[in-house]
Amino acid sequence: MFDKFADYAYYLLPSPFKRVAKAINQFYIWCTVMGKHIDDLQQDIYTVREQTMIISANETFLALHGIDRSVRRLRGETVDNYRIRLMLYTKIAEQAGTNQAIYYVARAFGYDNVTITRSSESALWATATVSLIGGNIVLDDRDLMIAELNRVKPASAILELTKEQRYQGKQYFGSAYIIGKIITIRQG
Q1: Are 61 and 51 in contact (CB under 8 A)?
Q2: Disulfide engineering: 166 pairs with which of 103, 134, 182, 183, CB 3.0-4.6 Å?
Q3: 12-18 long-range CB contacts below 8 Å, 24 or more apart?
């Protein structure tokens, strides 16, 4: 109904105050001056609201959210992936020391399929292998992945990392056999 606060404030005035022409009406002039400041303040409040939420913060404020959570942006990491890691930070911190935290870290780096298996070959009882398989991989730095996984692993565990990337495509197999002097080649 009203686009500006000045119009709304003037509308709220009782009718005796509105009988004077707007050009000389001191109430209208006051509503216009104060309305501009309040409209600017409203825009500032909307901007603050957007920047305080990780999902809608711009790159500058995203870095401030990262400083607040002690999560720095990694070299080569996109803004969207950094945003996802910051949003998953509380989940990872709540689940630290459990396998679920390892799943969250792998998800933050773009790995969808994660398996954790205890190693029976090792002499150490707390050795586990984390297998990261496929997904929308964002960063492919092995040392960085091990460092992040070791931050959230169970305290007594020693983690090893294996990664597997699956690609979709066609693979052709052929066979040949000789019958007498005739060579037959088939592709399947």
Answers
A1: yes
A2: 134
A3: none
Residues 105-117: pLDDT tens digits? Answer: 888 777 878 888 7
Find, among 19, 16, 28, 57, the residue nearest to 69 by Cα. Answer: 57
Do residues 138 and 109 make contact, with C-beta atoms less than 8 angstroms apart? yes
Q: Tens digits of per-residue pLDDT, 46-93? A: 999 999 999 999 999 999 999 998 888 888 788 888 898 898 888 888
Q: What are phi and psi of 165, to 5 degrees?
A: -115, 125
Q: What is the pLDDT of residues 138-170, one digit of tens each?
A: 666 777 777 777 777 766 677 777 766 655 667
Q: Is the torsion defined by CA of 74, 88, 164, 166 positive or negative? A: negative
Q: Could you give the angle at the alpha carbon of 70 between the alpha carbons of 67 and 75, nearest 5°?
A: 80
DSSP 8-state symbol, 135: S
